[in-house]
Amino acid sequence: MNKIFFSLTIAAIFCAFDAFALVRVKDISSLKGVRQNQLLGYGLVVGLQGTGDGTSSQFTMQSLATMLNNLGVGIDASTINVKNVAGVIVTAYLPPFSKLGSKMDILVSSLGDAKSLKGGTLLLTPLKGADGQVYAVAQGPLTIGGFSEEKAGASSVKNHPTVGKVPGGATIEREIPFEFSMMKDLTYSLHTADFTTANRVVRAINKELKGPFASAKDSGTIQIQIPDAFKDQMVQLVSQIELVKVQPDTTAKVVVNERTGTVVVGQDVRISTVAVAHGSLTINIQPNLSVSQPEAFSGGTTQVIETPTIDVKEGENKLAIIPGSVSIGDLVRALNAMGVTPRDLIAVFQAIQAAGALQAELEII
After folding, report:
1. Is the dihedral of CA 136, 137, 140, 144 positive or negative?
2. Does residue 96 contact residue 38 with C-beta atoms inside 8 Å?
3. How far apart, in whole angstroms, are the C-alpha atoms of residue 55 and residue 78?
4. CA Rg, the chain, in Å?
5. How far is CA 171 from CA 38, 46, 120, 131, 139, in A?
6. Starting at the edge strand that comes first in sequence, how are the strands of the sheet with 29-31 ordered?
7. pTM score
8. What pLDDT score was predicted for residue 306?
9. Residue whose C-alpha is closest to residue 141's, from 57, 68, 45, 211
10. What is the pLDDT, as a whole number, of residue 257?
């Protein structure tokens, strides 16, 4: 089966279903104030089997010396020469409504020239927010999911051994002040701003709440006044709104990636009546080499003579007319009949747009 026919047929099938698909409000929007917060920290991983930072990573040696001095072991950083310690950056996402003592996963990434963090243990590391406050502390053994082995000049590496995780390795020590139950109204932000989608969401929510409580501030913001019946039932109200189903609207768009030959056609793409001829010219040059030797005692030299064979083939595709306002299925059949490949399809769409017949946005990524 032709690749372009298969790809576009699958796209047409999905678009046919999508035309009647309804999605939940929670899947296309986010509630203002309810989000994750990024945390960042610097720490040390110890217990490595000779795969840690070398002496060239001065920050690791300085950090190790500072830690030992704080523990009562006086030592000069310039005298340290170990390979079982690595300086790392620790990142985490603080979930919304996190409480003191809750656990969360952390990601540990090597900062120096360590070869592997396999078998290492992260030492106590404070995690700070953008305001400089410590919101969690992290510590624990790393899980890598890979390895890096080197012996006698041979090496073997699997996955990425300089990045690991500590499941539940951070304990929350500070809560983000946010009184959800005291909110006067709810504000939802659409992931993709669109006036038609915003209007549909407003109508669907008002129908669910049986009153004009929702309004669209712009193409991406929905504001909802809290009904008196839900003043003390905010969680129930948000749950009810999130489950409201709407049909989002999308811009007619054709997205092409010339590097990979990928073409994605939106369901609302339409093409005015055009005639398309797409053929290919293939030139194959095959070098034929022959050796010419001079006769005996003639004083000549041996020469290599090149007599290339040139074969020219031109595609037999004929002119095809694509009627106006065709659907995705019609477009698939027309292009498949012309034998258009994915990479040729990019050139076809660019030419159709240049002719002013593509009633959609062409985006090249």
Report:
1. positive
2. no
3. 9
4. 32
5. 15, 20, 19, 19, 9
6. 29-31, 185-190, 221-225, 214-216
7. 0.67
8. 57
9. 45
10. 82
Q: How many helices (H) and strands (E) does the chain have?
A: 7, 25
- Which tokens belong to 50? 């000779």
How far apart CA 88 and CA 77 sit, in angstroms, is: 18
Do the Cβ atoms of 149 and 161 come closer than 8 Å?
no
- Alpha carbon distance 53, 120 (integer Å): 12
Sign of CA dihedral 185, 186, 190, 196: negative
Please give the backbone phi and psi of residue 120, each rounded to the nearest 5 degrees, phi first. -85, 160
Tell me the average confidence (pLDDT) per consecutive run of 10 residues in the chain, 365 residues long.
46 46 91 91 94 87 90 85 93 92 95 90 95 95 76 64 93 88 89 93 94 93 92 90 92 81 78 69 52 66 62 53 59 65 76 81 83
Q: Which CATH class is domain 28-33+179-246?
A: alpha beta
101: number of Cβ within 10 Å: 8
- 75: Cβ contacts below 8 Å, ≥ 6 apart: 65, 68, 69
| Tokens representing residue 120 in the block | 């290492």
C-alpha 284/C-alpha 316 separation (Å) is: 17
Q: Encoding tokens for residue 216?
A: 């669209």
What burial letters (b/e) apply to 230-250, b meaning 16+ CB within 10 Å? beeeeeebbeebeebebebee
Q: Where in the chain is the domain with CATH 3.90.1150?
A: 28-33+179-246
C-alpha triplet 315, 321, 324: angle, nearest 5°: 145
